[in-house]
């Protein structure tokens, strides 16, 4: 059974960089075929896909967030990381990590990130 767990600070100041880590258990992030995504849900809004890192390490991000987004991985720790720079209050959301790139079959429980001074 694949399990994902997000971790990171719950409060980030405007203009700073949001950094979250997803720890994966029950399966390797370098396993052929799979992609590993970050998805967020702002309060009162729908899910927004942020980007993914593939089993080969290739990354792809949403065009609307691409200029501020970096996704990386640590294959030894079986983790992948999201960095979102120059955050504003509009980046306040529940952030999820998930397996997949358009259809997601495993999700983390989500972590609330609030951008506020």
Number of strands: 11
The averaged pLDDT comes out at 96
H/E topology pattern: EEEEEEEEEEE
Overall morphology = globular
Features:
mainly beta; 4-stranded antiparallel β-sheet; 11 strands
Secondary-structure blueprint:
Elements: E1 3-7, E2 11-12, E3 18-25, E4 35-41, E5 48-54, E6 59-61, E7 69-74, E8 79-84, E9 93-99, E10 106-107, E11 111-115
Parallel strand pairs: 2-11
Antiparallel strand pairs: 1-3, 3-8, 4-5, 4-9, 5-6, 7-8, 9-10, 9-11
Description:
With 117 residues, this protein is an all-beta fold. Helices cover 0% and strands 50% of the residues. The chain has no helices and 11 strands. It has strands at residues 3-7, 11-12, 18-25, 35-41, 48-54, 59-61, 69-74, 79-84, 93-99, 106-107, 111-115. Strands 2, 4, 5, 6, 9, 10 and 11 form a 7-stranded mixed β-sheet that branches. A hairpin with a 4-residue loop joins β7 (69-74) and β8. The chain starts with a strand and ends with a strand. The model has no long low-confidence stretch (mean pLDDT 96).
